[in-house]
Design brief:
Blueprint lengths: L7 H9 L2 H6 L8 H17 L3 H7 L6 H14 L1 H15 L8 H13 L3 H8 L5 H13 L3 H15 L3 H14 L3 H15 L4 H13 L3 H14 L4 H14 L4 H10 L4 H12 L2
Helix pairs in contact: 3-5, 4-5, 5-6, 5-7, 6-7, 7-8, 7-9, 8-9, 9-10, 9-11, 10-11, 11-12, 12-13, 13-14, 13-15, 14-15, 15-16
């Protein structure tokens, strides 16, 4: 009989974007040292997702285990543009170290950082070997960004063989369906809807459904979903960006959402493309 997964709720809430709920479910007793490290990594990644970067940086000291040090690097990477170069340099140094370079959390963090840098080939150097469902899910995201849905589908098949019902497998399936488009959009919507009903409706899932609706031309429904997502997290960059696009298609003012996005996430692709992108979207 398999041992109970004490971290299921924490891990699942994190994958679904329910970061505060994940933190609230992290007080788990009698964990093995490896599970305790995984718990701490997930909790700190939740704080990163909530924007509490300095808290993570101050909480993880130099004696912490390699996975936690990797999470600290991620917080430093996001904390300010000045830190990016030194963070990437440290990351490359650690990845080249035979003693720790193959650590799955370190490879995952490397994949996330290099994906943000849009250096997809470098990201895949560290993630392509897989080893965990989260690494495979990250590969799906990277291949989608590279417009290689064929490779993304191969990764998804591997995930389905490991655990077809896993939340990450379901999410990866939905992301791929969105990328493929056409009749697959409805399938993606149903996956996001099913996860919302099975667990809880998070900003991540509401955005997923809203993007599906926009692809299907249902902009009124998309707007309703995005307003609901905004009520859950008023600073979420994807919600604000999707709301800008949605409002432009509905002929409604989008300047408020765009200003909020520009203020809280100046590096977002929609902000970088600026006013011209807003014209293109009409």
């Amino acid at each position: 009989m398999a041992a109970p997964d004490h971290l299921f709720n924490l891990r699942n809430n994190f994958y679904l974007g329910a970061y505060q709920a994940a933190i609230n479910s992290s007080n788990v007793n009698n964990l093995s040292p490896d599970d305790a490290t995984e718990r701490d990594c997930l909790v700190h990644r939740c704080y990163i997702a909530l924007g509490q970067l300095q808290f993570v940086i101050s909480e993880i000291d130099s004696s912490a285990a390699t996975p936690l040090q990797a999470v600290k690097l991620l917080a430093q990477y996001f904390s300010s543009p000045e830190n990016k170069e030194s963070t990437i340099s440290s990351l490359k140094e650690w990845l080249a170290d035979p003693a720790i370079g193959n650590n799955s959390t370190l490879r995952l963090i490397a994949g996330i950082v290099f994906m943000h840098e849009q250096d997809y080939n470098e990201a895949l150097k560290h993630t392509n070997a897989g080893g965990t469902l989260e690494l495979h899910a990250l590969n799906v995201q990277i291949f989608i960004k590279m417009h290689r849905s064929d490779y993304a589908e191969r990764q998804l098949r591997v995930m389905q063989q490991i655990d077809e019902d896993h939340t990450l497998t379901q999410l990866s399936n939905a992301w791929l369906n969105l990328a493929v488009g056409g009749s697959k959009i409805q399938e993606a919507y149903l996956i996001f809807q099913d996860l919302s009903e099975r667990y809880q409706s998070t900003s991540l899932l509401l955005n997923g459904k809203a993007v599906c609706c926009m692809h299907m031309g249902n902009f009124d429904e998309a707007e309703t979903l995005l307003v609901e997502a905004l009520n859950k997290d008023a600073r979420d960059p994807e919600t604000l960006a999707n709301l800008v696009v949605c409002c432009l298609h509905l002929g409604k003012p989008s300047s408020k959402s765009f200003s909020q996005l520009k203020l809280s996430h100046p590096d977002h692709v929609l902000v970088k493309r600026g006013i011209s992108s807003r014209r293109e979207l009409r």
